[in-house]
Structure formats: structure tokens, C-alpha cells
Automatic annotation (TrEMBL), chains A, B:
Pfam families: LacI (PF00356), Peripla_BP_3 (PF13377). PROSITE patterns: HTH_LACI_2. GO terms for molecular function: DNA-binding transcription factor activity; transcription cis-regulatory region binding. Residues 20-74 form the HTH lacI-type domain. Gene3D superfamilies: 3.40.50.2300, lambda repressor-like DNA-binding domains. PANTHER family: HTH-TYPE TRANSCRIPTIONAL REGULATOR GALS (PTHR30146:SF109), LACI-RELATED TRANSCRIPTIONAL REPRESSOR (PTHR30146). Coiled coil: none annotated. This is LacI family transcriptional regulator.
Length: 345, 345
DNA sequence: TTGTAGGCGTTATCAC
DNA sequence: GTGATAACGCCTACAA
């Protein structure tokens, strides 16, 4: 049993542990609460000797304004929220990192909500998160357009990340997945590959649809396409890799880097050499894939920019100033060691 | 320029866009605000027909209680914070993920603060984060004992993660780094390695000290130890690997998995075969290292448990009930493919 | 059961 | 410049 919550011997005999509020400081400094408030915020001018008294009293009492009370009085919390579909996905790590950083520079804090891919709860979570703060960065790639649209008014101000929403009422940051796929195709076809596999992500995923559509419309003439249901995680790639050997493809396009990494691993276990026998391509360019063996050819999505760009738009929205235009990030093909000429056979 | 912030044609002609508060609902339902409050919270009994009127009014007006106002009135926010030294480190991803999940089950949200390894700001950040919510999970492995100790009263209730603090006033979850190192040594010595390198992490890192100390006290009799300053990131491992070839070691112990991964990658580039020519060991067992080539031998730290365990303690603290005892997690050696018998030479 | 009224800790608008 | 005083939106004794 812990005794940590027991009170030690009382040290302050007098004030019976009165919570240290602005009123207490005011009394101690013999001024009004208004004056204490002014000193703490430094906006208005107050007489130097009074200010000193206040500061000293605050110091001695260990006073600090209550953020909650300030939030209520000011009508703003100094917090923004970000909702992600799966905190476990490394993709979000960079976004969160940079978003926290950017927001922090303006003295805003970040609340993170994780819907855990639970589409039922997502709308409520978003609303709740939003209500707790001043703005929202929403990443909900699986939410139906219609639902998102009717949700929008209750989420504003917010910025939308990593998904399309035609006629979006909110600033939107997207990634041109189609362009990325086209780059990959050009690359692989140039290497002589004519029969490709696509390891599909979750079929609720908008970005998976975008990839798939581009692939399907391109397939047929120059190359054959085999679609394999897979998923979005390491383990999915790892376990799907066995199927690859049977279907006679020379190159694999994975839904994302995690999957590609799993494939790489499994192929190695199977003794299939990459890229000599099989080329593998990822998507996202999350940090560590340049260190895989061989380093993964992938499409680099500028994840690092997503955070700051989202922040600057949200910041503009909250101040009601002009918002920068939407941007659709053009991914960049990163050719590394996991792709090579198609085996002659 | 975006026209998103312009108001569309006013749709509600009557109530001049009055903010929808509890008072509005009360008027609409023709009851007192107290009654609305009671209905919304469902604690007290109110007459069914009144309750219905209230619910309907709330529904129509789109009313939802303000979390900020509730927080002020109730004296609790329903938020907990976690402070991490570097959100970019994958190690925290799992912790955050699970912590968010566990807290969410109790309807608590998570605020995340990232000190970005800035030791100056860290105390203020911790205090600020804590004040915004009901409790704190603190991960500050570089903060001096003394400072943390004097900070403690202002952070309470909080739980301490991933560091030691003798006589800690807060519940503490630590990892037995020494034991992990000892396991690694036993493993490597058993494989015949007699000359090892340690790639040191940041020298402000408490966990680095723990590892180092164990290594140093063990070294000398059975094996030689070469310490190489390195760091905590992929890139650090990658760039330090070149030095390994010159110092004639047969095995490397990396500060963490990231570093080990970087080493693996560089060794492969250099044509040095792992484990035939060099064994490599990591630390942490972050998710993807089982997929490296070869899969990384590492010490598995039960990161997944850190989040939930931290939460349950914080939860207990906040409710002022008995707190579970501290736990020092015993890491488990995961022997995979990156270690093997020392080369005969 | 329901309403009245006061409080949660700040900030902001007034007079002085 | 400074101090009352009224918000901010909600909750909860207490009284009816």
C-alpha cells in the first residue's frame, strides 16, 4: 500500500491550505484581483511598486493563473486537437511531432485523439475533441464524404488532412497518390517489369482507392496487374509475401512502407533476392525505410510538411485572417535498392 | 483568397446567432437551467415529460455542454497530459497509443507535450501541461534528480516513467536496463565474443548511464569493451558503423534499436555480413525490428504495458484510492538473426 | 421533483 | 492607474 496520498505533517499552520487563487494573491498584495490580473498578463500599465508587490506575493504563494478559468473567461483554450485513425501508424509520428512543435511555437498545446479505426465512434470523438479546444486537425480517411460534410459545421475551425473532400469547407492538405503511383509505374516499366502485384490497403481507405484506381486504369496495355488484399501493417506484408511467389510477378507495389517492409522481410526469409528476383516498392517514405536491406524504393510523401502546414492554416482560421491555399503534395519517387531490372527468365 | 470565413446568407432569421448555452435550452424547454443540467448529466431524477422536453430542445438547438465550463465548475478537466522528451522517437509511439487507449476507456483525453530534448524548457512545460489537466505522465529521463524532486509537488498527481528517482514521491515505472545488458552479455559471451563495442546514447540519458555502468563493471575479465559515442537515432548508428571495422570487435551493442538498425544498414552497405562477421544487438524491441534483415536480436522492453500501467496508477491517484506498487520491468532477451557465433578469425 | 442563487477562477468594462 | 462588478457556462447545495 502506498502512503503517497497521505498528507505529511502540515507545514503551513495558518492558512489551512487555501487554494491559491487570484483572490488570495490580491489580498496578500493588498490590491484588487483586477490588478493582479493586469500584472500577470502584462498588458495594461500598473504602478511599479504595486506590480512588484503583486509579483512578490504571487511568487511566495506559488500562484499561477488557472488555465481553465482563463479559457472560460477568454473564450479560448490555447489547445488544438488532432484526430488520427491509428496512433500506432508511424506515419503519424512525424505529423504529430511537427504539429506539436509548430503549435508550441505559438504557445498552443496539442490534444490527441485516436479513433483506433473505429468508424462508429469517430464522429463523436471528433466533436468532443473539437469542443475541448480552439481548433482541430482532422485525419479521417475512412469517413464517408457525406458524414464529414454534415459534421463540418460543428468542427470548424478545422483543417482536413490526407483525404479529399470535394468542395471542402475546410482547408485541405492532400497527397497526390495517383501521381505517386504513376511515378512508380514509369519506374517499374522502365526496368522491364510487365507483371505487377499491388498489395491493397484497407478497402475503406480513400488513399487505397486512389492508388487502386490509377493502377487499374493504367493496367492492361503495358502490364498486367494482380491485386492482393493485404492491409496496412508490417505483419500484413509479412504474411502476404508467400502468395507472391505463386503468382509469377516480378515486382510488388505495397500499399505503404510498413507493408513493403514486411514483404522485404518475408522474401528474405524465403530466400528470394530483392531486387534480383523481385522488386519491391513502398509508399510514404517513413523515416527508417532508407535503412532497410536493401533500402526501400518508395514514394516520398513530405510528411514533415504536413504538420506545419496544417498548423499555419489552422492558426490563420482561428485568427480569422486569410488562409493559405490548399495544397496537394506531389510525392517524389525515391529510387533506392529494392527495385531493379526485371529478371530475364 | 479563401472565402471560407465569410458568413453565408443568414439562415436563422430570429435569434441572431445566439450561442447555444444551457440557458438557451432552458428557455426553449421552459425549465430552469438546473433542470437542463440534471437531464444532461442524468444523475438526479427529473420528471419524464420535462426530461423529454429538455432533450428535444437540446437536440433541436444542437446543444452540448461546454467542457471548459464544466471543467471549471467540477474542478476536473477529464484530460491527462503526457510529457515526452522527443515525440520523434518511435519508442513513444506505442506508449502514447496505449495510454490514449487506456485513458479513453475512462473517457479521459490525452494532451501531449514534447520537450524536444530541451532541458531548459522542460520544467515549465511540465508544470504548464499539468495545470491544464488532472494528471500527468512524466517521461523526463534527462532531468536532474534534484530538479525533479522540487518540481514534484507542482506536478502531482503524476506518474514517472522510464527513469529512476530514489524515494520518488510518485508511482514509478522503470525498466531494468542493467538486467537487459546482463542478458545481452551472457548471450554474446556464450557465442564466443570477447571484444565488444557499445554505441553510447546521449550522455544526459539516465538509461544510457545504467547500461554503461553495467557494461563497465562487467568488462575486463571475460571481455574487452570499446565505447563509441553515438546517439539515439538511425542516422547516428548508420554513421558510426564505419568506425566498427577499425576497432576489431566481433559484436556491437547499440544504445537502442534505432541505432542498431542504422548499424545494420551501414554494415550491409560495407559488405560486412551480419552475423557471420559481426553480431549486432539492439535495445527496446520496437515493433519493426523483427522485420529487419537479419531480424534484430534485442532486448524486449514491454512498451505496450507502460501506457496502461501508467494510466491505472494515475487513475488511482486521481481518485485517491490505493495505487498499485511500482514496477520495474524485466526486459526479455529476444534472440533473432543478428547475432551468431564469433568469427573464428 | 423543480427552481433560486451562489460559486468555480479569470478577464474585461466600467466608473472613480 | 485602480477597484468594483459583471460576464464566461456550468454545477449543486439549498429552499420551495
Amino acid at each position: 500500500m502506498s502512503n503517497r496520498s497521505l498528507n505529511g505533517p502540515r507545514e503551513d499552520p495558518a492558512p489551512a491550505n487555501e487554494p491559491v487563487t487570484i483572490g488570495l494573491v490580491a489580498r496578500a498584495a493588498n490590491v484588487s484581483r483586477a490588478t493582479v490580473s493586469r500584472v500577470m498578463n502584462g498588458n495594461t500599465k500598473v504602478a511599479p511598486h504595486l506590480a512588484d508587490r503583486v509579483r512578490q506575493a504571487a511568487q511566495e504563494l506559488g500562484y499561477e493563473p488557472s488555465p481553465v478559468a482563463r479559457s472560460l473567461a477568454l473564450g479560448r483554450t490555447g489547445i488544438v486537437a488532432m484526430l488520427v485513425p491509428d496512433l500506432g501508424n508511424p506515419m503519424f509520428q512525424g505529423i504529430l511531432h511537427r504539429l506539436t512543435e509548430a503549435a508550441g511555437d505559438q504557445n498552443y498545446r496539442l490534444l490527441v485523439a485516436d479513433s483506433n479505426e473505429n468508424l462508429q465512434e469517430e464522429p463523436l470523438l471528433a466533436i468532443e475533441a473539437r469542443r475541448r479546444c480552439d481548433g482541430l486537425v482532422l485525419c479521417a480517411p475512412r469517413m464517408p464524404d457525406e458524414q464529414l460534410r454534415e459534421l463540418a459545421p460543428r468542427l470548424s475551425p478545422f483543417v482536413l488532412i490526407n483525404r479529399e473532400l470535394p468542395e471542402s469547407p475546410a482547408p485541405t492538405l492532400t497527397i497526390d497518390f495517383s501521381a505517386g503511383i504513376r511515378d512508380i509505374l514509369t519506374h517499374l516499366l522502365g526496368l522491364g517489369h510487365r507483371r505487377l502485384a499491388y498489395l491493397a490497403g484497407p478497402d475503406t481507405s480513400a488513399s487505397n482507392h486512389a492508388r487502386l484506381e490509377t493502377l487499374r486504369t493504367s493496367a492492361g496495355k503495358e502490364f498486367d496487374l494482380v491485386e492482393l488484399p493485404c492491409g496496412a501493417a508490417f505483419a500484413d506484408g509479412h504474411s502476404v509475401a508467400d502468395q507472391l511467389v505463386d503468382i509469377d510477378v516480378t515486382a510488388v507495389i505495397a500499399y505503404n512502407d510498413l507493408v513493403a517492409f514486411g514483404v522485404l522481410s518475408r522474401l528474405h526469409e524465403l530466400g528470394i533476392s530483392v531486387p534480383a528476383q523481385m522488386s519491391v516498392v513502398g509508399f510514404d517514405d517513413i523515416e527508417f525505410v532508407r535503412y532497410t536491406t536493401p533500402p526501400l524504393t518508395t514514394v516520398s510523401v513530405p510528411l514533415d510538411q504536413l504538420g506545419p502546414q496544417a498548423w499555419s492554416r489552422l492558426w490563420a482560421l482561428m485568427r480569422e485572417v486569410t488562409v493559405e491555399p490548399d495544397v496537394r503534395f506531389r510525392p517524389r519517387l525515391e529510387v533506392r535498392g529494392s527495385t531493379g531490372p526485371a529478371p530475364r527468365d
